[in-house]
Task: inverse folding
């Protein structure tokens, strides 16, 4: 299943449709929701954050102990 689909299903099942923010995935598991994309150091490198419109960001740099360095946008739904 695509990351955008997992995030959309999670939003629907947990009452986050229309609330904006991002759903953060680690592999195919939802790690949580935050109201805005921030604090990459709180997430491991390789996590995917999916905005409500389908825009995705990946946590990169850093390490598993100290967390990622930045979020980098890599896809936007048209």
Result:
């Amino acid at each position: 299943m695509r990351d955008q689909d997992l995030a959309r299903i999670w939003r629907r099942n947990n009452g986050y449709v229309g609330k904006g923010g991002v759903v953060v995935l680690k592999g195919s598991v939802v790690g949580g929701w935050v109201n805005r994309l921030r604090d990459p150091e709180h997430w491991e490198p390789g996590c995917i954050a999916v905005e409500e419109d389908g825009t995705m960001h990946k946590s990169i740099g850093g390490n598993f102990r100290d967390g990622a360095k930045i979020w980098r946008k890599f896809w936007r739904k048209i």
